[in-house]
Specification:
heterotrimer; A alpha/beta (423); B mainly alpha (283); C mainly alpha (294); A: 423 residues; alpha/beta; D-Maltodextrin-Binding Protein, domain 2; 4-stranded mixed sheet; B: 283 residues; mainly alpha; MetI-like fold; 2 domains; 14 helices; 76% helix; 0% strand; transport (chain B)
Amino acid sequence: MTTKLAALSTTRRRFLKGTGAALAASATGGLCLPALAQAQEITIISNLGNAQQREILQRLATEFEAKSGAKVVINNMDHEAHKTAIRSYLVVGAPDICFWFSGNRMKAFVAKGLFDDISDLFARENYKSVLGATTSAVTVGDKQYGLPMGGILWGLFYRKDVFAQHNWTPPKDWKEFLAFGEAAKSANLVPISMGTKELWPAGGWFDHMNLRINGLDKHIALMDGKVQYTDPMLTPVFDKWNDLLKAGFFSPSHSSFGWEQAGAALAQKKAAMMDLGGFVRSAFPEADLPQLAYAPFPEIVPGVARYEDFSVNSIHVPANAKNRQGARDFLAYFYKPENLGAFLAAEGAIPPRNDCPPSHDPLVNAAVEELKKVVATSQYYDRDTDPDMAQEGMTALQEFMVKPDRRDQILGRLEKTRKRIFG
Amino acid sequence: MYPRPIPEDARIQRALYLGGVALVVILWLLPLLAVMLTSIRSNEELMAGNYWGWPQKFSLIENYKAVFEQTAMLRFFLNSLLITIPSVIGVLILSTLTGFVLSRYPFRGSNLIFALFVGGNFLPAQIMMIPVRDLMVRLGLYDTVYALIIFHIAFQTGFATLFMRNFIAALPGELFQAARAEGASPFQTLRHVVVPLVRPALAALAILTFTFVWNDYFWAIVLTQSDAVKPVTAGLNNLRGEWTSAWNIVSAATIFVALPPVVMFFMMQKHFVAGLTMGAVKG
Amino acid sequence: MSRLWRRNRHWVTPALFLLPGLILFGTVILAASIETVWISLHDWDGIGAKTWVGLANYIELADDPQFYVSLKNNVIWLLIFMLAPPIGLALALIVNQQIRGMRILKSLFFVPLVLATVTVGVVFGWVYDPNFGLLQLLFGAFGGTAPALLSDETFVTFAVAAAGLWPQIAFCMILFLAGLNSLNDDLIAAGRVDGARGWRMLRHVVLPQLSQVGFIAIAVTVIGALRSFDMIAVMTSGGPYGSCTVLAYQMYQESIFSYRFGYGAAIATVLFVIMIVFIAWYLNGLIKAERSNA
């Protein structure tokens, strides 16, 4: 595991370098579009919930068509539906390019031989020099199986005007956090906006508390199934979480809506903070965006180093793709610093290349600054653990948030699942 | 007639009764009316929290235009037609044949075959998910409209056979005896006796099958993936994911999806009840 | 040749008529159902090779609390859906009047039947929304707060099933309307002569004549209840925390989200067995009715 951790922390550092740097002599040089890309078709399956990103992808596809003469067909899927559809289409009817998540979720498909090895593209375009250690997010045994996309730094988001109005500052430690929650409640705001209909936000909250209490190594051990869910190390996590639940820190009936609605509550000044990534911006009207600000999850146990969830999306060529060469050519075009930069700016993600244009988005720049203070990173609950375990785990965590009194029963069930999956 | 008809000359009573029923209809369709109302609401109003009040500004044209221009709903709509119409025709033909044979040519095992059709149709379709998907892949039909057409014809044939068999069994036996006495072959009997008489049943069946196939969501997501073949229900759900906060657009698309079966139903309503009366009820 | 044909055409032609439907139905529907039983005896992630595990999936299922939640919810669906035939009958009685304009109202009653489940899901999602839903509007009018039905483990199944009930009532209503159209007028007239009115007329003269259609309505309703899937997928995804799953949904979830196709197939097989019991009851009723008609 140590290698992975080292890789992760270097990943982070490379990201900083990347975004900090200015356009700086984009060394990619003359991107050559081979002449053989004539009258062929390249199909893409995307999972973009962000309309602006869909537009940019379409624009890049059209540009590429004009340059290469190839035809690019984009099929966009609903983000959640895509998570299930990919299992089928990678086996049968694979597109030439698809969107996914790096790290463990990518490795599951690599292990089954479903993603194409694109080390040749890495060599051809010399990506390692601009990605640096980020390459490791898409590497399995010296080979690259995808291109890293935007990074999402998770943390608490809030509105500056609301905080100014109440004279609040983002809570730094647990005591402040509890006090802040009480203040928010007396100001008739929900302290933490959350929508757990799609389950994962509950997993994220667990991650963040566990990282602050037990640190990264123990957290990753749990994700890898090496620690029991009934282990005493988790007792303070659930105790403290239970305190928050009892005190009414989270949106009532959070299981009936998703993060979009929770984000809207934050934008509409009905809630004070929200645990999410920079993509929370899409829940805000354009005019309100300058009010949106980031704060790290508060410290819980003093002395535990700062670890954060930092997820890196990715883009892949399925092994069963019909036009793997065309896919590489399009990716090379798509991954040019200016194109990738524009695409990622739309969702407020942190670019993986160090030669993308500097961001105009203060949130992205703030995230970059914050990342400098982070010691090491995990990805996210459902990206770090086995998918089967993640499904059971996030369901159970949602249940805990609604019925905290069932803790023992819930954890017992999780432990049973862990044993079944990891043995 | 039951209940006893309100007399023709009791005009006021009739008007009041009709008004009362209309009120029940409004309550009955209230949720749908709300969606229709939302589909003509402007985005600003929704953001401001006016979900149920009367819209201050009507955005009917804008919203529906957005559905056609900014989403691929029109293409999904055409896909749905390409899937649904052949499926309905296929089901009508196959079930007329099977229904005719099973009702008029009893043989050893015919009850068993009938039971298989009925039983198979009662199964929750989800349990066939994996094998059916694999079958379509092996046939090279995965992610084509043919995969959906074949599956829908196969599945609906079960129900349709039950329906047609009951209907044909309820036809007067003398007709068939007469045909036999005249030496008509089974094919001639089918053509000259059965087909002219089952039209109302076919009309009812056409509406039901159309509705079932048009509204299918599960198989749409199991057997297709590209926008070029995706039917309108899958498209609508995608839209919900992509336009999460633009409820007016989602509503407009929702209404748009519901339109064809509703229109079809209204057009054929008379035949529908008549066909059902004879097919399902008398059988 | 021609003689051979004439001698045999009385069975050859019907056989040829039967074959296309039978082959299609057999290879797609029946074979797939049986293959599911076969898969349930394996450990399979849907991509790699299948590993034979015998009855292990069933043994695990017997000890899976989620399975019992699903089973219980299927029963709830069944009970709630049983409201559809009587309500459908009541509505059919209400609209069974020949008044100008009644036909259009009748058709409007049928509208929920032809709506896609996705549509019904969207519609009821708004009814139940705790912040701005129709229900909240209703409660708010009396100064109360509507319960968040979709995030309450006690109510969620009822709420989702109620949404599913909407089109189901319309279906039953159509069936009963068809039944009312084919009532024997002589019997009704005789009943009237005997002084039977209102409830007694319904109970003793009308309902017996509707027994056939009632049987079909109940059958269609039971299938609808046991098959429930789309509504759950669209409205709650089985949540909160899996408390409103039914067998069909749990099967889907285990296969698709947890990649346990063998386990999912085992759940499907249990549903299959439950269905077969019901189908046997139905076919038995069908055959009995036919005999009494003959």
